[in-house]
Amino acid sequence: EMKFIKVNLNVLLFSLAYYPWVIAWMFSSTLLKDYLHPYVIINYWQYVGVVFLLVKFLLKHKINILSLLTTLFFIAVAFVVSYGNDNASFVFYSIFLIFSGADQNLEKIIKYTMILQIVCLLITVFSAVSGIVDNKVVTSTAGNMVRMRHNLGYTFTTFTPNYFLSIVLEYIFIKKLDLSIIELLIIALLNIIIYKLTLTRLTMILVFFILIYLLGIKKIGYERFLSKLSTVSFILLSAISYFLSVVYTPQNRILNVLNSVLSERIQLSQVGLQTWGVNLLGTSVNWNSESINYNYIDSSYINILVCYGLVIFVIVIVGFTLVNLRAKQVQNFPLLFVLLMWAIRATIDPQLFLIWFNPFIFYIGKSLLSYKAEEFI
Question: What global pTM score does this model have?
Answer without folding.
Answer: 0.94
